[in-house]
Design a protein that fits this description.
Order of helices and strands of chain B: EHEEHEEH
Radius of gyration of chain A: 18 Å
Number of domains of chain B: 1
Oligomer: heterodimer
CATH architecture of one domain in chain A: Alpha-Beta Barrel
Low-confidence stretches of chain B: none
CATH topology of one domain in chain A: TIM Barrel
CATH class of one domain in chain A: Alpha Beta
Mean pLDDT of chain B: 93
Helix content of chain B: 25-40%
Low-confidence stretches of chain A: none
Order of helices and strands of chain A: EHEHEHEHEHEHHEHHHEE
Strand order of the largest sheet of chain A: 1-2-3-4-5-6-7
Number of strands of chain B: 5
CATH architecture of chain B: 2-Layer Sandwich
CATH superfamily of one domain in chain A: Metal-dependent hydrolases
Largest interface: A-B, 18 and 16 residues
Largest sheet of chain B: 5 strands, antiparallel
Strand content of chain A: 15-25%
Helix content of chain A: 40-55%
Strand order of the largest sheet of chain B: 2-3-1-5-4
Distance between the termini of chain A: 46 Å
Number of helices of chain B: 3
Mean pLDDT of chain A: 91
Structural class of chain A: alpha/beta
Largest sheet of chain A: 7 strands, parallel
Shape of chain B: globular
CATH superfamily of chain B: Ribonuclease P, Pop5 subunit
Radius of gyration of chain B: 13 Å
Distance between the termini of chain B: 35 Å
Structural class of chain B: alpha+beta
Strand content of chain B: 25-35%
CATH topology of chain B: Alpha-Beta Plaits
Chain lengths: ~240, ~100
């Protein structure tokens, strides 16, 4: 069966539509079927329309994503309540343990991300994995740090990521491998993205799933939920009658 | 002695300026050595088979057992001869003949 590949973290500068369009075209050429671009609440409607048009021209599916960085549990729940119905993917960058735990517990969170270079603030441990497994949140791993870091910093990154991936696999937490890049030259083909994930200890099948099935499952689930006909998982309105 | 199985990889170099064959293979060796060390690199049996400077396409050979290692190292290349670049794997094959047929 042919795989559909997705990159859920493509950082585009929406203020520069020409470059954004070039990167989108290249992504389509490299073999991706879907990309998710982080959009901030401040992004104008015009910028979003241009982005959608560029994706339509490149024949690539676009998913809207928001990255939130709450400082407290309350801030997280407030932002989730406000933003959940507006975006297809919600990623929480966990800056402290309190937020990490709440994000892993909350069903409205799709992706858990941790600061890649600050190793003291990576809170993905066994307790976090157990909570994430129950709420269907996935662990997002960006490959950009692998490309930009060198020497001891990269060694430390590889060691902490391998540990986290091993924990995620033990608790059956879905893993999503994304690029996290903003430049054209940093883009890689989906299979190359998967092969970079080998360095984190993923085997070939799991690495390919992390760039295809796992991200696609999140998008499919959320699109279904955001559909106006959705009532509850497995229940949707098929026909409305008159009173 | 058992025959070593090999794989041939067709590569596309993404860069503004076309690197020379030496600059290209040096970048590949450097990436493999950086990630897997000298011992790991010695297991790969890497060799540059063909390089088209005009099209920025290359064919390299590696041992079957280390294809994934080489793919990872190629994906980690961010510069060739101090110029920003990326190396994409276009095709992988067991024989040079089949590789060129794939590319056609």
């Amino acid at each position: 069966m042919k795989r559909n590949f997705a990159d859920l973290h493509l950082r585009l500068n929406l203020k520069d539509p020409a470059t954004a369009s070039r990167i989108i075209n290249k992504t389509a050429k490299l073999g991706y079927h879907l990309i998710a671009v982080p959009i901030t609440p401040e992004t104008s409607q015009d910028e979003t329309t241009k982005l959608q048009r560029a994706c339509n021209e490149a024949k690539i599916d676009l998913a809207t994503r928001i990255d939130i960085k709450p400082r407290t549990q309350n801030e997280l729940t407030y932002q989730l309540r406000r933003l959940r119905r507006q975006f297809e993917v919600i990623c929480v960058t966990c800056e402290n343990k309190e937020v990490a735990r709440q994000a892993a517990k909350d069903h409205r969170v799709d992706l858990l991300n941790f600061p890649s270079t600050d190793f003291r603030r990576r809170f993905f441990d066994r307790a976090e994995a157990e909570l994430a497994h129950k709420s269907l949140a996935a662990l997002e791993v960006d490959v950009k740090p692998l490309l930009v870091l060198e020497g001891p910093a990269r060694v430390r990154l590889l060691s902490s990521m391998s540990r986290e991936i091993a924990i995620a696999r033990e608790f059956h937490v879905p893993i999503v491998v994304s690029s996290g890049v903003s430049g054209e030259m940093q883009l890689r083909r989906p299979r190359e993205l998967a092969s970079l994930a080998f360095l984190y200890g993923l085997d070939e099948t799991s690495a390919l799933e992390a760039v295809s099935q796992n991200p696609m499952a999140i998008i499919k689930r959320n699109r279904e939920k955001l559909n106006h006909r959705f009532v509850a998982p497995g229940i949707r309105i098929i026909k409305e009658g008159k009173d | 002695m058992k025959r070593t199985k090999r794989r041939y990889l067709a590569l596309q170099v993404d860069s503004d300026v076309a690197p020379t064959p030496k600059e290209f293979i040096d970048a590949v060796w450097s990436a493999v050595t950086k990630l897997y060390g000298e011992y790991g690199a010695s297991q790969t049996g890497l060799a540059l088979i063909d390089y088209n400077e005009g099209e920025k396409k290359a064919v390299i050979r590696t041992a079957l057992a280390t294809v994934n290692m080489v793919r990872t190292a190629l994906a980690s290349i961010t510069s060739v001869a101090n110029k920003e670049a990326a190396v994409q794997v276009i095709a992988v094959s067991g024989t040079i003949k089949a590789l060129y047929e794939n590319l056609r």
